[in-house]
Amino acid sequence: MIYVIVISALSCFGMIAITLLKPKLKIKKFMVSTYWLIPLLGALILMACLLISPKEIFSGLTASTAINPIKILVLFLSMTVLSIFLDETGFFKWLANAVLKKAGSGQIKLFTALYVTVSLVTIFTSNDIVILTFTPFICYFAKNAKVDPIPYLVSCFVAANTCSMLLIIGNPTNIYLATSSGIDFVQYLKVMALPTLFAAVTAYVVMFLLFRKTLKTPISGTAEKISIEQKPLLFITLGLLAVTTVLLVISSYINIEMWLIACVSVGALIIIVLAFALIKREKPKELGQTLARTPWELVPFVIAMFIMVLALDKYEVTMKLGNLLGTRNTIIIFGIVSVLFANLVNNIPMSVLFTSILLSSSVPASGVFATIIGSNIGAFLTPVGALAGIMWLSILKKNNINFSFLSFLKYGIIIAVPVLAAALGGLAISSAWA
Q1: Which whole-number Å values give the CA distances from 130 to 121, 124, 125, 161, 309, in the listed order?
Q2: What is the dihedral of CA 104, 162, 343, 21, to 10 degrees?
Q3: pLDDT computed for residue 104 by the predictor
Q4: Residue 196: CB partners within 8 Å, gap ≥ 6?
Q5: What is the C-alpha to C-alpha distance for residues 52 and 42, in angstroms, rounded to an integer?
Q6: pTM
Q7: Which of 13, 67, 247, 386 is most buried, most CB within 10 Å of its CB?
Q8: In the prediction, which pLDDT does 18 show?
């Protein structure tokens, strides 16, 4: 048992170290993310040391249960492809620019408009995609408008990681934790609506108070002119996303699994785009760029983490952790501990580990939802909390914006503590109603 714990722990800490020190490797013309390499090595070591057998791994990966990581990966990657394709059509950039134009010269109005826009877009797409899409644009606009970009960058990051709690598709951690516990789309939304509302309002108020002096400076620049070239593809993708979201909502009533709905939607998108390109006799460049930007490295990463959790589960480590946390005061305990664990090992490994803890310890549903809250809000406590945080810092560095690890931690503590309290308070109320 001790070997499994040591190998798993070293894999998680090694993943954080390599991500902070060398987030990407350049192989010829390609840039490859490194965060998945150490966990994959850890999983291979567990197999090589016979601490878990290929048969046990195959059984876990092919199990017809909600915790099947293959189905969860298909669901997340499918929704990610839809979101990235929207970005490739220029939708997110156009939307952000439209908001900026309407805001006029007042920074407070702009700050509010951008916060609301990022929040709404995140609800129906994905927090990581929104962060990575809006961040470069905010950097560019702030430089043109001659305003301090920090309030808007922090606002964008916090809004995306807060409002991603509302729907099950907002974050891969939501998908993993909820589907593993048998929570469907509607059941999830009923419970998480109030915590998300409380958290979003609290986050806005805290950030407004934090940046109110900076936001009093008038805007002296102008927004850029943006046009969308492939409007038919944009409208088709928006329609597909709307239909997919509706089907995900009613999936439990029509007895079709969410991963299958999302997969069929992406298949339909690919067929439509290829047909469109064939008719126009041009290359489907948006589709190619979308597939190139899709985080395929999540596949070996999640499977490697799943293998480590299978090994921990085999030697009853997760059960002992579950017994240690207990089944009382689950909202407070699992909410706080999940945030801390997310910032020790990253929120995706934390979610994989806590899924096993939750299932092995008969923790009530409130503990699952508290962990989901922790996996989202924990992302803006430190950069380690989520992969998006590390990628976000690298984008700021490329744009010559000075925002250190300590700056992230300072803003993270000030914002995350009241937002977590508000979200857990909302969960306590919605759980009492359920």
Answers
A1: 7, 10, 8, 10, 30
A2: -40
A3: 65
A4: 162, 163, 165, 166, 423, 426
A5: 12
A6: 0.79
A7: 386
A8: 82
334: left (phi over 0), alpha (psi -120 to 50) or beta: alpha
Can you give the pLDDT at residue 159? Answer: 95
Helix (H) or strand (E) holding 24, with range, is: strand 24-27
CA distance 385 to 377: 9
3-class secondary-structure state, position 251 = helix
* pLDDT at residue 193 in the model: 96
Instruction: Name the residue ranges covered by the structural domains of the chain.
Output: 66-433
Site of tokens 């490329």: 398
Can you name the residues that pair with 31 across neighbouring β-strands? Answer: 26
pLDDT number for residue 154: 95
Whole-Å CA distances, 116 to 101, 122, 156, 201, 408: 15, 10, 9, 10, 22
CB 342 within 8 A of CB 374: yes
**DSSP one-letter string for 366-414:** HHHHHHHHHHHHGGGTSGGG-HHHHHHHHHHHHTT----HHHHHHHHHH
Q: How far apart are CA 73 and CA 303, in angstroms?
A: 9
- Mean pLDDT in consecutive groups of 10 residues from the start of the chain, 434 residues: 86 81 73 83 91 88 73 82 85 75 75 91 80 79 80 94 91 87 90 97 96 84 68 88 83 81 92 90 87 85 85 82 82 94 83 84 88 94 82 78 88 96 96 79
Residue partners of 322: CB distance under 8 A and separation at least 6: 357, 358, 360, 361, 363
Q: Which residue in the block uniquely carries the two structure tokens 């878990």?
A: 52
Helix (H, G, I), strand (E, B) or coil at 296: coil
Q: Are 415 and 210 in contact (CB under 8 A)?
A: yes
Helix axes 69-88, 91-103, angle to 10 degrees: 60
